[in-house]
Amino acid sequence: MDLYQNKYRIPSTRLQNWDYGWNALYFVTICTANRECFFGKIRDGKMITSKIGELAQKYWFEIPEHFPFVKLDEFVVMPNHIHGIIEIAKTNDERGNVTGRDDDGRDAKFCVSTPSPQPPSPQPPSPSRLSSPSSPKNKFGPQSQNLASIIRGYKIGVTKLAKMIDYNWGWQPRYYDHIIRDDISYQRIKNYIKNNPKKWNEDKFHT
């Protein structure tokens, strides 16, 4: 924890020199405040969503309506968090003529290939970065077209109605993100999300 202007702050753990508006697949986890089970409960390995859980699901699938450059992949609502894969897939015009390439010249977006016939046994992915609305301003692309703006819009949308259902409702201020780099990682994370309800008792977010 650093001291800045006589105030302590938590340094950003986002990947440096990476523009979160670049075309890529992002694994995102967002928790409720204090990991309270606002979204429902697990029964016999299946998620039973509450009214707020239904909102969390509804607004997630509406993200592309507000961000046309977004494609959604695997997603699940759990009792106190959500997991989802977001693909940012901007056209050249939407990228503002930004190449969107890594330093080695490859396109930043990972194009999903055909799954391997025998993928490795899935292991719960450990979210690699914890992002926050208070993180330093992105020095790259437009702030309205990056991962943080997508998550912020989603959280606001859910909160507006969730507060009317339960006054104590709230999100954890931060969220976890992981840039999916290859097909093996993609398949592992996709399977992890799909099987999450069945393994709730083993989940690191279980309360």
Explain what you see.
- This protein is α+β, with helices and mostly antiparallel strands.
- It has one domain (18-202): Alpha-Beta Plaits, CATH 3.30.70.
- The protein has four helices and nine strands; from the N terminus they run E-E-E-E-E-H-H-E-E-E-H-E-H.
- It has helices at residues 51-61, 63-66, 147-165, 183-195, and strands at residues 2-4, 7-9, 24-31, 40-43, 46-49, 70-77, 81-88, 129-131, 175-180.
- Strands 6-7-3-9-8 form a five-stranded antiparallel beta sheet, with helices on both faces. A two-stranded antiparallel ribbon has the order 1-2.
- A hairpin with a 3-residue loop joins strand 6 and strand 7.
- Helix 1 (51-61) packs antiparallel against helix 3.
- The longest helix has 19 residues, at 147-165.
- The radius of gyration is 17 Å and the shape is globular.
Task: Report the total helices.
Answer: 4
For this structure, what is the CATH homologous superfamily? Transposase IS200-like
**Structural class given helices, strands, pairing?**
alpha+beta
* Cross-sheet strand order for the largest sheet: 6-7-3-9-8
In terms of DSSP E residues, the strand content is 15-25%
Oligomer: single chain
**CA-atom Rg in angstroms:** 17 Å
Give helix and strand order, one letter per element, not per position.
EEEEEHHEEEHEH
Distance between termini?
27 Å
Q: Tell how many strands the DSSP assignment holds.
A: 9
Q: Please mark out the parts with pLDDT under 50 across 5 or more consecutive residues, or reply none.
A: 1-12, 97-128, 133-141
The CATH architecture: 2-Layer Sandwich
